[in-house]
Structure formats: C-alpha cells, structure tokens
C-alpha cells in the first residue's frame, strides 16, 4: 500500500482565484457564519465524551472539524501578518470550507508538513533588535487547534512559580509573586531565561 504524500501548504491555494471575475464569489460553506456554527458544535461534542490522553485519541480531537473551526476563529480574531507563503488571514478564512476538510485529512494521515518561518526584526526598547518568527496562517491554525486540546490537560500540572507563556500569567504576575516573597521575608529571587533553547525551525529572512 502506497503511503500518502506529504501535504504541502502551497497545494491548498493552487486553485485559489487570481484576479479573475469570480474572485469575490464565496461558497456559503466558507462564510464566517458557517464557521461559527461548526465551532459551536465543539462545546456539545466535548461535553459528551470523557477526555482521553492516548496519542491517537488526542490527534482525533485536534483534527475534529469543530475544534479546527474554533481554532480558525481564534486565529482570525488575532489577525497577524502573513508568513512566507504570503497568504493572509482573510484569504484562509475565505476558503475555510474547502481547507478545513483537507487540513483534517492531512492531520489524521500524519502527512501535514509545516512551512518555513518568516523572520522579521523589531527594535528592543533598550537598543538592539529582537528576532520574531511569523508562521504561515495555516500553521498558526494547527498550533491553535493543538493548544485547545493539550492546554487543559497540561496547564494544571505546571508549577505555581511558572509564569512564562501561560494563560493569565506573564512578567507582571512574576513580579507580583516576587514581591510577595520579599514581604514574607525571603531574600533571593532567581530568574531563569533559556536563550536559543532547542533546535529552531527553518527561518526565511523577510
């Protein structure tokens, strides 16, 4: 049996309208209302099933149509710049009705391949520049879909002193906790920052 081919992001937009007379014609299934209707089903679907943590079941939950629709809604609300493929949030949302089942199939068949990261540089308040990686919109879509399933499972397991990249936490809550420690009579606060940790994804300069 032949293995399914890797799902390339460029393939998604191969037949997208390119300046012809039909460019503004959108299938009703791709509208925001249809997305909201699909996403709303996730609330009932999740409440009807007990949370499972085996890898296969988690992947099914990530790739569920309701979860993907909810994830795209979140990505659209966050807006953000296009990645290296140049596709905007608005274009992906416009073709969501066609893209969603393709993305679902690619995730379940484990043939989804994320794109490169667009690298941009933003000035730091104290001087110098900070590198910022911008994934393609569809990659952000997948990331959000994974987050929605895994975060409720793993968030409660983090140490109370962990403040980085957690919902409702950040530098402000870290400082507040440090102040409480000082007021309790403790003398030291340790701040740990891992720089350039792990193997970075391929980057493409903007």
Q: Would you spell out the secondary-structure blueprint of this structure?
A:
Blueprint (H helix, E strand, L loop, with lengths): L8 H4 L19 H16 L7 H8 L2 H14 L10 H6 L1 H13 L8 E7 L5 E6 L2 H18 L16 H13 L19 E3 L1
Parallel strand pairs: 1-3
Antiparallel strand pairs: 1-2
Whole-angstrom Rg: 20 Å
Q: What is the approximate shape?
A: globular
Strand content range: 5-15%
Structural class: mainly alpha
* Relative helix content: 40-55%
Instruction: List the uncertain runs.
Output: 8-31, 42-50
How many angstroms does the end-to-end distance come to? Answer: 41 Å
Domains counted in the coordinates: how many? 2
Biggest sheet strand order reads: 2-1-3
* Element string (H = helix, E = strand): HHHHHHEEHHE
Continuous helix count: 8
Q: How many β strands by DSSP?
A: 3
Biggest sheet details: 3 strands, mixed
Folded structure, characterized:
The structure is a single chain. Helix 2 packs across helix 4 and helix 4 packs across helix 6 (96-108). This protein folds into 2 domains: 1-15 and 24-157, no CATH class; 160-189, no CATH class. It has helices at 9-12, 32-47, 55-62, 65-78, 89-94, 96-108, 137-154, 171-183, and strands at 117-123, 129-134, 203-205. The chain contains 8 helices and 3 strands. It is mainly α and 206 residues long. It is globular. The protein has a 3-stranded mixed beta sheet, with no helix packed on it.
């Amino acid at each position: 049996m032949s293995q399914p081919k890797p799902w390339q992001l460029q393939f998604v937009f191969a037949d997208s309208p390119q300046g012809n007379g039909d460019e503004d014609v959108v299938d009703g299934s791709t509208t925001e209302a249809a997305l909201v209707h699909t996403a709303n089903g996730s609330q009932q679907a999740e409440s009807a099933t007990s949370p499972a943590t085996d890898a296969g079941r988690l992947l099914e939950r990530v790739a569920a149509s309701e979860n993907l629709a909810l994830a795209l809604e979140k990505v659209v609300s966050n807006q953000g710049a296009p990645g290296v493929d140049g596709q905007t949030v608005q274009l992906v949302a416009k073709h969501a009705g066609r893209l969603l089942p393709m993305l679902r199939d690619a995730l379940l068949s484990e043939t989804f391949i994320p794109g490169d990261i667009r690298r941009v540089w933003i000035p730091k308040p104290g001087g110098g520049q900070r590198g910022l990686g911008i994934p393609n919109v569809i990659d952000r879509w997948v990331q959000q879909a994974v987050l929605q399933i895994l975060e409720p499972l793993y968030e409660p397991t983090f140490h109370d002193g962990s403040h980085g990249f957690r919902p409702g936490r950040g530098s402000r809550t870290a400082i507040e906790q440090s102040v409480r420690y000082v007021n309790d009579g403790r003398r030291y606060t340790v701040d740990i920052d891992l720089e350039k940790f792990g193997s970075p994804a391929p980057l493409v300069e903007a």
